[in-house]
Amino acid sequence: MSDEKKIPDSLRPSEDPIVLVTGASGYVALHCVQQLLSEGYRTRGTVRSLKNKEKVEPLRKFPNQHLLELVEADLERPEDWP
After folding, report:
1. Between 82 and 60, whose confidence is greater?
2. I want to staple 64 with a disulfide (CB 3.0 to 4.6 A). Which of 21, 37, 43, 74 is the partner?
3. Where do the structural domains in the chain lie, given as residue ranges?
4. Helix H segments across 1-82?
């Protein structure tokens, strides 16, 4: 009998994971999103405002847009946390 514990299905990695990038329009995060998309990862990025074209447009120019979901959330506001 093995000493290894069985990992519950709910804790097993998904075959199609979604990577969350907070502050996706920031300098470092922007490069992370670009890399994730280029490697084929489904990516969800938070931005403070989807209406801020100056911040959102660079994200919209990356290839593999079908893998990118942008979500409006100001993580400094408690009401934006579920």
Report:
1. 60
2. 37
3. 18-67
4. 27-38, 53-60
